[in-house]
């Protein structure tokens, strides 16, 4: 998809800004053709009910699009490619009811809700949503020029599902982290993190497509970044588990305990610090969301072994007791 990366860091648009009888025509000519570089088609009798919206963010040198729209047919034809070349690797996450891709060098395929696909922008395809819900997907467009280690095979990636069972969870973790980074404001550190995630996503896609060897320097770096992302997400998912420990997360991640600690050696916080930090953040959220809930109950639900431990750790981190935080939370916390 020919999504430009110039302009505002965040750009949103929806068809509510256009008169109803003009919505699909505007979407087709200005948004689909002009912004995304594709041809959109829809039966005339269905155009009056058409709705579409999207957002575009710049993250780490890439463009992240989220798109929702009524059902219609999309084609990226040879003339579309000539009109709006993209020269980028795309990672698609299908949401909603799923979608179908066809008309390419490779076989037709469908992509289920939550699944991923990868491609180069400048190869033809056709796609339609599966089901009446229409399109809902996220697309990360990574310019080939920004990917270290050029390889002509990058430009030969026709759309295909991301099926590697070992790599798919890593891709999902990086994609989720990038989406969360899009809503944060962490300055230069956040920009560096976004760039690292984008590069890891590009290289994971190239590993899955056979363009990059996983044992190469770039492949290993991508796997380290992705495994660290997945490890952090596993920690967040198992905060209440009293057995949450390095060996548990290492088993879930499919690596040795030593390898897990090596991953965190390059991070800002160690494994144990990451667990404590996540538990504290969760407790703060619960105190805001459930102001009448007992602090002891919150501490237990976040995995702290005792109320005394929770008070000690909370005070060390924030310079106040949990009750004091709760008392002032409405005033800016």
TrEMBL record:
Keywords: DNA-binding, Transcription, Transcription regulation. Residues 229-328 form the HTH araC/xylS-type domain. It comes from the Bacteria. Transmembrane segments: none annotated. The keyword DNA-binding applies. GO terms for molecular function: DNA-binding transcription factor activity; sequence-specific DNA binding. This is AraC-like DNA-binding protein. It comes from Bradyrhizobium daqingense. The lineage of its organism: Bacteria, Pseudomonadati, Pseudomonadota, Alphaproteobacteria, Hyphomicrobiales.
């Amino acid at each position: 998809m020919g999504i430009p990366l110039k302009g505002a860091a965040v750009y949103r648009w929806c068809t509510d800004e256009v008169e109803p009888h003009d919505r699909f025509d505007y979407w087709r000519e200005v948004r689909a053709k002009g912004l995304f570089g594709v041809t959109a088609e829809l039966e005339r009798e269905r155009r009056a009910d058409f709705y579409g919206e999207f957002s575009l963010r710049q993250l780490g040198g890439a463009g992240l699009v989220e798109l929702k729209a009524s059902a219609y047919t999309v084609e990226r034809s040879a003339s579309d490619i000539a009109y709006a070349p993209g020269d980028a690797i795309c990672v698609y996450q299908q949401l909603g009811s799923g979608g179908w891709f066809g008309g390419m060098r490779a076989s037709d395929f469908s992509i289920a809700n939550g699944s991923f696909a990868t491609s180069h922008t400048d190869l033809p395809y056709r796609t339609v949503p599966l089901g009446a819900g229409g399109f809902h997907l996220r697309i990360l467009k990574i310019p080939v020029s920004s990917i270290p280690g050029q390889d002509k095979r990058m430009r030969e990636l026709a759309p295909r599902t991301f099926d590697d069972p070992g790599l798919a969870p890593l891709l999902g973790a990086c994609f989720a982290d990038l989406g969360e980074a899009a809503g944060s404001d962490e300055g230069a550190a956040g920009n560096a993190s976004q760039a690292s995630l984008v590069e890891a996503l590009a290289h994971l896609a190239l590993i899955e497509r056979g363009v990059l060897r996983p044992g190469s320097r770039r492949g290993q770096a991508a796997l380290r970044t992705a495994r660290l992302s997945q490890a952090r997400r596993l920690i967040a998912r198992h905060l209440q588990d009293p057995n949450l420990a390095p060996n548990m997360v290492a088993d879930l991640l499919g690596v040795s305990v030593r390898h897990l600690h090596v991953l965190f050696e390059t991070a800002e916080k160690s494994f144990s610090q990451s667990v404590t930090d996540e538990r504290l953040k969760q407790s703060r959220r619960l105190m805001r969301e459930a102001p009448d809930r007992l602090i002891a109950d919150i501490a237990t639900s976040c995995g702290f072994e005792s109320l005394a431990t929770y008070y000690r750790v909370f005070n060390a981190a924030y310079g106040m007791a949990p009750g004091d935080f709760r008392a002032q939370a409405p005033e800016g916390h």
